[in-house]
Structures are given as structure tokens and as C-alpha cells.
Amino acid sequence: MTTDDRVGPPHLGTERETLRAFLDHHRATLAMKCAGLSDDDLRQRSMPPSTLSLLGLVRHLAEVERAWFRRVFEDNAAPMLWSPPGEIDFQAAYDASASSRSEAFTAWEAEVETSQRIERAAGSLDLTGHQPRWGEDVSLRMVMVHVLLEYGRHNGHADLLREGVDGTVGA
Fold it and tell me: Which SUPFAM superfamilies match (predicted)?
């Protein structure tokens, strides 16, 4: 990766500014890990029997954004993007064998925009929504931390996947 256009999180800031910035930084990191690759490169799997690929990670994180922002704060019944009807199967998103950059990134970017809109409209991190899978209410603070941890974990996978595709390492 020759260019790094990501904006780093603030060294001083409110809790909300810091959470927002770290989450946006991780979102930008995922996009950067996929930059400059073809659809075939993005579909390249790690190693058998895993179906993990960069494109699968993008699809999975679109589902994560949807499950934790849209479904919790706007529409508990919103269908998942790649799960069978009526189900929540995060593994289904990993099968990117018939997917393309356009399909995956269009969905992911739309979910990120929805998540950002929900977060920015909230009066505080204490806003509560209902997590239908748990049958419990959760705070926006908890959701942002959870999604941040998801990105941190999966960006680690993205590091290894990108290196396997073309040897690129870093950030």
C-alpha cells in the first residue's frame, strides 16, 4: 500500500469523538487493505478449509454494521444481506465466490453510512436500542465498542490475507 489517506484518531478528545474516530479509522483500514486489488484477488481464500477472503470480510462487516446499528436502533426486523431469509448467519457473508468488489463495497458503504447517520443523530452514547438476537437493550456506547472490536479483529485477518495475495504488508 503506497498511500495511507486514513485520518488518525485524536490524541485528546471526548469519549464519543474518540470512539467515532477509532471506528472510522478501522473502516478506512479495511478499505485500504482491499485497495488496488481485482475481484479475483479479493476473492482469494486464505487456506483450506477456510473460506475467508478480503471480499468475504467486507461482506461480513457489512452484516456486522447492519446487525449492530440498523437492526438495533432503527428496524429490529431488517433482513440480513446474505443470510437465508429469516435467519442471521454471519458465515453466509464469507462465501464471496460469486461476489464482486462492486456488490460487496456498495453494501458495506451503505451500511457504514447508515451506522454513521444513526450515531451522529443520537443525543448521547447512552441512547439505547434493542438487540433482537439477545432480546436485550444495549447502549450506543456498547454497540460502538463492539463494532470497533469486530473491525480490530478482522483487520488483523485482512493484514494476513493481503500479504497472501500480493505480499503487501503494513498499516
Answer: DinB/YfiT-like putative metalloenzymes (SSF109854)
43 within 8 A of 53, measured Cβ to Cβ: yes
The pLDDT of residue 2 is 59
pLDDT score of 90: 81
Q: What whole-number distance in Å separates Cα of residue 106 and Cα of residue 61?
A: 12
d(CA 18, CA 80): 29
Q: 131 in helix, strand or coil? A: strand
Q: What is the DSSP string of 43-56?
A: H--SSTT----HHH
Low-confidence stretches of the chain (pLDDT beneath 70): 1-2, 171
Q: Are 169 and 2 in contact (CB under 8 A)?
A: no
DSSP assignment letter at 68 = I
Contact 104, 59 (CB under 8 A): yes
Q: Residue 82: which H helix or E strand, with range?
A: none
Q: What is the pLDDT of residue 71?
A: 96
| pTM of the model as a whole | 0.94
Kindly report the number of other CB atoms within 10 A of residue 113's CB atom: 11
Beta bridge partners of 62: none
